[in-house]
Amino acid sequence: MPAFLCALLLAAAPVWGYTGGPVRAELLGYEPSERRVYYQLKAYDESGDAPRVFFFDLAGSAPAVPVRAADLEQPDAFHSTPEVSKRQYRLEEHLVALPMVHSMATMTAGWDSLRIDPVWERPVYAFRVALQKDGIRGAHADTAYCSPLFRQIAAYRIPGRQEEIAVLSFIGRAYGCEPVQLPVLLVPSGKRAK
After folding, report:
1. What's the number of domains the chain is made of?
2. Is residue 182 part of a domain?
3. Distances 160 to 61, 113, 157 between C-alpha atoms, Å
C-alpha cells in the first residue's frame, strides 16, 4: 500500500482521547452578609466543563450540606457570558479570604467494597470520613474508586466564626484512579452536619 494512502487512512481513523484527570477544590471565600462560604470544583480533564460552584450556607438548617450555585457557572470552560461574569464579579467584591490554619482535624475513615465498575474495571467503595477538632466536627460520605486512600490536605478558618473548612483528597474518579479534592465544613457539635 502506498505511503500516502496509509497516512490518509491513519488521519481518518477515530482517535480516542483521555478524558480523565483530577478534581481540585478552590475556596473562593466567605460572604459575611449571606453567611456563605463559596468554593469551586474544577475538573482537570478534557471535558471542557466549567468549574462547578458551591456554597455552605452557615445560616441554613443544614450548613454542612453543599448547595450548588449554578447561576455562578459559565456554560463551559472555553466560553463565558456577560451575565454570569457580572454575577461572579459582584460576589467577588464581597468575599473575604479564608486564612489557612496549621492544625488539622483528627480524621477517621471507614469503607465497604461495593462492586467492580463494569466500564472502567476498577473497584468501587462506599466510604465515610469523620473529622473532629476542638469541639467542631464534620463528615462526608461518598463513593471512591481504586483505593480508599484519604488525606487532609488543608484547613481554613472562617473569619469571625467557630466553623472551619477542611479540604480532603481521596481517590474518587474511575479513569486512571484520579484524586478528588473536596471541602468539608466542620461545625460546632450542636449544629447539624451532613
Report:
1. 1
2. yes
3. 19, 41, 9
Say if 1 falls within a structural domain: no
Q: Transcribe 110-154 into DSSP letters.
A: EEEEEEE-TTT--EEEEEEEEEEETTEEEEEEEEEES---EEEEE
Residue 10 domain-assigned (yes or no): no
Task: For residues 24 and 49, give the distance between their C-alpha atoms in angstroms, rounded to a whole number.
Answer: 13
- What are the percentages of helix, strand and coil residues in the chain, rounded to 5? 15, 45, 40
131-165: pLDDT as tens digits: 999 999 999 999 999 987 889 999 999 999 999 99
pTM of the model: 0.84
Q: Is residue 99 part of a domain?
A: yes
69: helix, strand or coil: coil
Give the Cα-Cα-Cα angle 181, 56, 26 (nearest 5 degrees): 35
